[in-house]
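Can't attach files on this board, so I'm pasting raw text. These are the components:
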Amino acid sequence: MSLLLRLAYMNLRTQMEYRFNFWFLLTVKMMGYASGYAMIWLILNRFRGVDGWSIPEVMTLWALVQLSYTLAAPFFFHSMGKLEHHVVTGNFDHFLVQPLHPVANLIARNFSWTYSSQIILNAAVLFISLSQANMSWTVGRIAFLFLTILGGVAFQSFVFLFGAAMNFRWLHSGRSVSSNLRLMIDFTQYPLSIYPKGLQSFLTFVVPVGMINYYPCLYLFGRGNDAWFYPWLSWIAPTVAIGVGLLGLIFWQHGVNSYQSSGS
Amino acid sequence: MSLMLISDQPGGLRFRFFQISSIYYQFASRFMRARLVYRTSFWLDLASQFLEILLLVYLWRALLSSGPVANTTLNDMIVYIVLGQMIHHFTGSKTAEYIEDRLTSGDIAVDLARPVTFRTMMFLEDLGSSVSSLVLGSLPLLVVAIIWLDFGAPPSLLHLCAFLLLLAGGLLVAFYISYIAGLIGFHFVRTSNLVWLVGTIQIFLSGRMIPLWFYPDWLRVVAEAAPFKLVYYTPISVYMGRTSVSEFGSAFLVLLSWLAVLVATESLLWKRTMSRLVLQGG
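---
Top answer:
Structure tokens for the assembled complex are below.
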């Protein structure tokens, strides 16, 4: 009997240890995600914004990127992250002979539930920044906002899919390619108007990261003055971003077609 | 590891007897070659380092577009950004994760039997990967910065010497912080979580992204009191000439006293860790 109690006590202690770890991890993660916003605030605080954009407006830009990332990551982070391993070992053969589309199959096996707290945090920041920023809430704008988020999710999915597809052709190159694409997305942390015209057009027409947040925000905040092709570039921005997401799927399919198994 | 390297070599035995002194050279050159194997990713990684700097340069160009703020020009900020990025790549320490791995797996017994202390081994390992990232990543970056970005020189030779000494001290501080985080993590939580937390705090209190003189007063007080500024802010502001020669003494005093505190903390923690390790092993 005393042994049983002792075992129960030990079990409790093990759980407590894990629970502390669990809460600690959750707190650290939240701090990590909040730190990006805090850093924007720290840099812009002294200058009260940048290039005519107030701090809440810049926060909105970043919140759109972060929210779309945390909405796309549960589907693609682990599924595409493990693809390199599957390709290197040749295990990917299994996915090709199964009756489900490989992308759907990979996602179903690797869906992640742990992003929920970050989604809530990013959505909250987006809502607070929008209400602090200079935007009038109309039904049209709210619908446009949802479309923008959808476009952002599609664009982020493209980065995951494209990076993973590179591994079919050139082993191990996927990680560097997607980290460079993510760096270009980082450029949209601040309004594109701070960059030289050449870089701006690169981020608009070549790698159109501006479609995730900058061009939609021009319309949301009614900033027609410092923009190109205003307002129609803003209006089509979500559609372009969704198109980029579909392009990611095509690239992926193309990669599969050129996949040569490493054999067993 | 080094033995495997030797036996992998054709004619390895002769190699072991006659060329043992060149093992270190072999190690270093193999490390470099390993990083250059995937040539595309090497170039892409270099490009990403450059992009990071480019983003910050344009941000500061916009922030300082209406003239210097707090006596800081765009050229000042370019020096700050480039040096900060170089230090950042130099201090990417894996020590804490390694400690956790070795302690929980029990492999640390092997490390303890080595003729050098565990801490020295960790430090040399860190130094090795830091030097390689300096040569392959930071030096090309510095060349680019000097050619295209008007990366300026320090105001005097004395400033340069003080900068190099403070930088070396700062790297030691960064190593000790990471090492101590590893030892603390072993007692309480998963080390990787603690390292993440320390990293987050460090970004804010070290002045890595923005000099402390732009901080709001309350945060500046906290940052001045913490050791993290020794890694970024202190050496960089000496290089820029923001710290006058008469203030060098106090800068070194602060560095040395923090190092003393960190060394003392480490040896205390190490003793405790070792005593717990024996209990676990028994």
